[in-house]
Amino acid sequence: MSLQGTLDATVDGDAIFRFTVRNNGTSPVALSFRTGQRADVVVTDAETGDEVWQWSRGRMFTQALATEELAPGETLERTLTWSDPPAGRYEAEGSLAAQQDVSATTSLDV
Fold first, then answer.
1. Structure confidence at residue 61 (pLDDT)
2. Quick one: which of 12, 62, 88, 100 has the fewest CB in 10 Å?
3. What secondary structure does DSSP assign to the chain, as a single string?
4. Who contacts 81 (Cβ-Cβ below 8 Å, separation ≥6)?
5. CA 35/CA 60 separation, integer angstroms
6. What is the mean pLDDT of each run of 10 residues along the chain (110 residues)?
7. Please, are residues 38 and 78 in contact by the beta-carbon 8 Å criterion?
8. Euclidean distance between CA atoms 20 and 38, whole angstroms
């Protein structure tokens, strides 16, 4: 598959994650979703590996099948916010909430 994920994080009081999936191929790719959720981010403590935050935890999503097509060179981008995170060093993994397996990681210091 020709999909590539990237995850960027900026910290300015809140931690803002930008998860992007790009179709680097020459053919369109149909992304299949089971719910209204399109992406997720899981943050772990860089020292212990313990999970400290997940964007989707405690949220509800529509229960509807959906398909989005990414043309060659096209991107799907989602911005997910972690409000007022505690100080620390973290690892974050962003993932596409589709049947296709696309993820990316980044580190951040708060």
1. 94
2. 12
3. --EEEEEEEEEESEEEEEEEEEE-SSS-EEEEESSS--EEEEEEETTT--EEEETTTT-------EEEEE-TT-EEEEEEEE-SPPSSEEEEEEEE-BSS--EEEEEEE-
4. 14, 15, 16, 17, 55
5. 10
6. 93 96 96 95 97 96 93 96 96 96 96
7. yes
8. 11
| pLDDT of the residue at 1 | 61
Other Cβ atoms closer than 10 A to 54: 16
Torsion sign across C-alpha atoms 30, 37, 24, 68 = positive
The token pair at 60 is 């509800």
Cα dihedral sign for 67, 19, 15, 108? Answer: positive
- Say whether pTM exceeds 0.85: yes
